[in-house]
Design a protein that fits this description.
The protein is mainly alpha-helical. The protein has one domain. The chain contains four helices and no strands. Helix 2 runs antiparallel to helix 3 (41-138) and helix 3 (41-138) runs antiparallel to helix 4.
Length: 210
């Protein structure tokens, strides 16, 4: 008989495919026929040989179907795990993009505010310089006041303007480089994610083909 009664029989029996269990029961019933006085032993032996062949075929077919079910269940679990992983990765990328946009927006506002502050400082500096040189010009002869004021005031104001322009240009250049680096990094991440999805799709197609 194919039935193997041993340790943990109940657990193994419940995990056995239904067709296999039915085959085992049919074999047991066939063996019990020997207990009957009406059983013809030569006939029983002949039927037993045929039953063994049929039982073996039924068991192999049942286990093949059971194995296919296990493989399909494992494939579904793996696919679900991959989809969940991709979903989490997309969420992480979206969170990174949102944080990047928020960061760059805040930085842009800070740059604008810095520009406004510099303009205000420039106007204040100009007003202070103008007031100071105006006091000086009042104490100087009329003939020389205008020329001296222009000679002294204009170079200093021009220097302040040039310094502010240089500072703004440097800050804008640094901000542009940071944005370019962030965008480049994001593009690499999106490309890696696309390649990973393509690999998963190819693997799934290969598994389906098998």
């Amino acid at each position: 008989m194919a039935l193997n009664v041993g340790a943990d029989f109940k657990t193994r029996w419940l995990k056995t495919p239904v067709d296999v269990r039915q085959t085992y029961l049919d074999e047991l019933n066939h063996v019990c026929d020997l207990l009957s006085f009406d059983t013809d032993f030569p006939t029983w032996q002949k039927n037993d040989q045929e039953l063994q062949i049929q039982s073996q075929a039924r068991i192999e077919t049942a286990y093949a179907a059971y194995k296919a079910e296990l493989i399909e269940a494992a494939r579904i679990r793996e696919q679900h795990a991959l989809e969940q992983s991709l979903h989490m990765q997309r969420q992480s990328q979206q969170a990174y993009i949102d944080a990047l946009i928020q960061h760059e927006t805040a930085k842009h506002k800070a740059q604008q505010q810095a520009g406004y502050d510099l303009q205000a400082a420039l106007h204040q500096e100009y007003s202070q310089q103008a007031a100071r040189y105006q006091k000086v010009s009042l104490a100087m002869p009329v003939s020389t006041t205008k020329n001296n004021k222009n000679k002294v005031l204009q170079p200093e104001i021009q220097q302040v303007i040039e310094n502010i322009q240089i500072r703004l240009e440097l800050e804008a250049e640094g901000l542009m480089q940071q944005i370019q680096q962030a965008v480049s990094q994001l593009n690499h991440q999106l490309q890696d994610a696309a390649e990973e999805e393509l690999d998963i799709a190819l693997n799934q197609n290969k598994a389906s083909a098998k």
